Amino acid sequence: MDQEPVLVLPGDLDGHAGDQVRPVAPGCYLQGTFISTNTLIGRGQIGGLGDSTLTRFAEFDFNVDVFLSSGDFNKAGAKLEAKLECEGDWDIGVPGSPTAEDACQPGVYTGRSDSPSQWKYNGDTKFDLWSLAPRLPDVANGDQIATGLFTPVLKFTIPGYSQVIPSEGEQGEVRFDSAAYNQRAQVGPCSPTPHRPFAMTGATQAIPPRR
Fold it and tell me: Which of 58, 110, 133, 189 is least enclosed, having the fewest CB within 10 Å?
């Protein structure tokens, strides 16, 4: 006796398992499973980037510990991209007309795109976030505080599939400022909020219609 197929939606990076729903059209079936535990560790920096007193920055280490990769996730040409997205904002009173992108943007370490098998072999990558102050540190310019809300994202590209739902991790926050009174370092970020390890325990699955 045939059973009605069940579609398992992806879980997220906060440890919530995927939901099970019954598809509207029959004939869907599991084509692959990817499960990993992912850890993001952020570090605030004392001083600006290089010799700059305008570019404040923070660095992050990211690890994808692959527990299971099967089916179409292992097809030739399949890729897993890890990146760190950031939404920036400025405090009221910051001089000039800085943009949200100036407040928080990816730096030189924008992430990594690789096959699931390569992620299983080496799960490490890094990110950095920059904040571009509109003025040099000066008492008259205030602290030029910018805030960045960052979110780690895993996105799959699988040949033969037009869309695979990405998985997002827990949102964190980093604050960048320029303090003219601080003689040790006049620019820098506060340490990113403590970021616990997060797990994608739901299976991210690619499920096309049956032919």
Answer: 110
Considering the entire predicted model, what is its pTM?
0.74
Dihedral angle, C-alpha 180, 186, 95, 60, nearest 10 ° = -160
Whole-number Å distance between alpha carbons of 110 and 105: 10
Q: What is the number of structural domains in the chain?
A: 1
CB 139 within 8 Å of CB 180: yes
In a domain, 35, yes or no: no
Is residue 198 situated within a structural domain?
A: no
Phi/psi region, residue 130 (left: phi>0; alpha: psi -120 to 50; beta: rest), is beta
Cite the DSSP H helix spans in the chain: 100-103, 116-121
76 burial class (0-12, 13-18, 19+ CB within 10 angstroms)?
exposed
Return the sign of the alpha-carbon dihedral for residues 184, 188, 190, 196. Answer: negative
pLDDT string in tens for the chain (211-residue length): 443 333 334 444 444 444 333 334 456 778 888 889 898 888 877 777 887 888 999 999 999 999 999 999 999 999 999 999 999 999 999 999 999 999 999 999 999 999 999 999 999 999 999 999 999 888 888 889 999 999 999 999 999 887 777 888 888 888 888 877 665 555 555 654 544 443 333 333 333 333 3
User: Containing domain of residue 174, as a range?
Assistant: 40-192
Q: Is residue 173 part of a domain?
A: yes
Type of residue found at 170: E
